[in-house]
Design goal:
alpha+beta, Ribosomal Protein L22, Chain A, two-stranded antiparallel ribbon, 5 strands, 42% helix, globular
Length: 129
Amino acid sequence: MKIIAHGIDLVDFPRLEELIERHGSRFLNRVFTTGEQAAADRVRNRVEKLAGRFAAKEAVLKLIGTGWRGRIAWTDIEVLNNSAGQPMVEISGEVKRIADTLGIEQITLSITHTANWAIASAVALAEAK
């Protein structure tokens, strides 16, 4: 596999918490899938978990080179953990269509947190030719 793109993002917990408080379920349902929301509801620090997912979604949008625009929906990108705890990304809709045109076959993620920040890095991979 070869690396064909990279995206990275940083999210401030207080800023995300403010958005959730101001817009509630309207914001949550627009940005996070039901699976992502359920996973965040199972942990002690819900905002930390959601911030990591938000950063990962932004990182994926950066690696496909679009940012959030056009027909892209935040929920076209779903970030859940596998049984070992590793974050995994599933793409669909417009994000999947764009990724396919770029030859992206796999996206790997890394998410980390500090006291007030979540950072995510996404790497797009394709078969080496």
